[in-house]
Amino acid sequence: MTGHLRRMAAPMVLALFALMGFNLADTWFVAQLGAPQLAAMSFTFPVVLTLTAVGIGLMAGTSAVLARHIGAGDERQVKRLAWDALALSDALGLMLAVLGLATIEPLFRILGASPDILVLIERYMRIWYLNLPIILPSMAAVGAIRATGDSAGQSAILVSASLANLILDPLLIFGLAGFPYLGIEGAATASLVARILALAPGYYVFQIRHGLGDAGMPRAHELRHSATALAAVAIPAAGTNAIIPLATGVVTALIAKEGGTAVAGFGAGTRIEGMSLILFYALSAVIGPIVGQNLGAGRARRSHSAVISSVRFCLLAGAVITASLWVLAAPLAGLFSAEPAVIAIGVSYLRIMPLGFGPEGCVMVVNAAFNAAARPLLATAISLARVFVLQIPLALVGWWLGGISGIFFGLLAGNILAALLAMAMWSKTMKPDPAQMED
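-> structure tokens emitted (439 positions)
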């Protein structure tokens, strides 16, 4: 990995550790309430991650479009697009919150939640959906800040939200220090309050440090132009990121056939997986601005070199993570539950799936690079193939042959094959012609 990538990725690791720690803290504290509560949280993961993917799409779209204008030196358009991205994402957040609140029961019945678990899910999600009008514009703002290359600034925003959530979680879930006992609802309430509190540092970095909100209120034609430019990347990027949680939803439904305990173990494994993938998320976050700015400046060679260096790092880091989780699988799964059946499922997940973490990181990096290069449909094609052509069919075959462990092996095979596909597509479409490479 090049020195520039390291300098940008280091703060992103901290930022993403905070972001993943946000979800991990919620899951761990709720797990202390019991296996049913952990199972309820596990059922929410596909839905929460799918909606978060919309925010990631907005973040990727904002970052990619702004990075190209920054590379071209168009400061006025950078500010116009940054401001419009916030307004559009807030409106979208409101619409999705209303839709989500109206569909809680039928949606989670489709995912296989039993009536007793569904009660817990409803208590959590009716509060969590209120986060969306804050989450989406916040992620768009982070994307704008990321496009400037200010990794430290976006880290400050995410870390402040995570710390606030970490403090509020035990207070509201367990009713400590005079706070009311809210149980699983406390986790959703803590998330909401933490994100509101993080608006202050977000405003400072976005407006005071970078002046990205100086464009003023948009005219109708400017807003339409911004929406078109952002949507060209954001919609495919959101679709790309939403595809993976959809696969998680299918897997959750399969595992739910084995009962709530199996879902709880699966949920514990996926939370640990999220923390294990932080390095890869960080690389995929910083590769976008690097690729976008260099392509905007006509330096295709540097963009390609950054992608190849990142892919190599993913494979090396993946091997180290795999070895570590093989040793630590049992104690890590035991942090979420004392029930042997829950721990067994978590251990199985953590000793099979990490073999595909490095390849999964390669897919993340290549998809982010395609988004930044204004080729988002290629990223979407890779993700569609990964999930619907590879992972889900192979998971179904694995379930038929080997039960829950077979599902995990199917998902693993899908990750490896998807990485090979991603690298082949990148080399075919984006590798610079050696005869035209710049110095």
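Residues 3-429 form one domain.
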